[in-house]
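Entry for S-adenosylmethionine complex. Fields follow.
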Amino acid sequence: MPDAVYVRDAFARIADRYVLTNHVLSGGADIWWRKVVTARIRKWKPKRLLDVASGTGDLALEIQDQCPACEVIATDFCAEMLAHAASRGMAKTLVADALSLPFPDRSFDVVTVAFGLRNMADYPAALREMHRVLKPGGRLLILDFALPDGILRTPYRLYLHHVLPRLAGFVTGQRDAYEYLGGSIEAFPSGPGMMRLMESCGFSETDATPLTFGVVSIYEGTRAQN
Ligand SMILES: C[S@@+](CC[C@H](N)C(=O)[O-])C[C@H]1O[C@@H](n2cnc3c(N)ncnc32)[C@H](O)[C@@H]1O
């Protein structure tokens, strides 16, 4: 699993170019992925939501905009990334490590994490921490990359390991941070593997929805009513 010191430093180095690079590398699809996630959350009408590993705030800002009755708190352990979230209009931000969240048990109706869990040093510990701060019946929603199945898998891996680092290196000047990206996607559980991991950390009613030919997936899980 990823090394926390390397990860924090890598995101600090790309923070100023992170939003632009995402849009370039995904062809703008990342905007749509976050809108799909937000549309789901809106239907749940949460009162209090924690966005973990918020980075520059792309998901948290969309939720804050679309769910005005909800208190949305954006957290990240990289102050440089979170500073962009605040300057882009995120009302509540807090520098915090997802593996040790500074919130009491059973505090939130919903916890979200977009493209963040994959970067954490201990996936089960992070999931158990998200479970701890959720209220009984509360929901976790994860958005993250996956490898597509079938004929797209090989060309996508070529893109991931050879094209994407060069393109991102050109935009950010930090090619190594994007060489890390491909490896992190390869190592990250997806589909049924991710649902099993969530269940082993206490979540029930797990579900996976692949988007954009399986390049990303949305995962949901619920904290039991106890
Ligand atoms: C790829 S960015 C995702 C940012 C944002 N959620 C988005 O959708 O664009 C990953 C973020 O995870 C954060 N991160 C990684 N490990 C973390 C941890 N243990 N605690 C808090 N944040 C973490 C990084 O600092 C980085 O900002």
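NOTE: Residues 4, 7-8, 11, 53-55, 58-59, 76-78, 81, 97-99, 114-116, 119-120 surround S-adenosylmethionine (CB under 6 Å).
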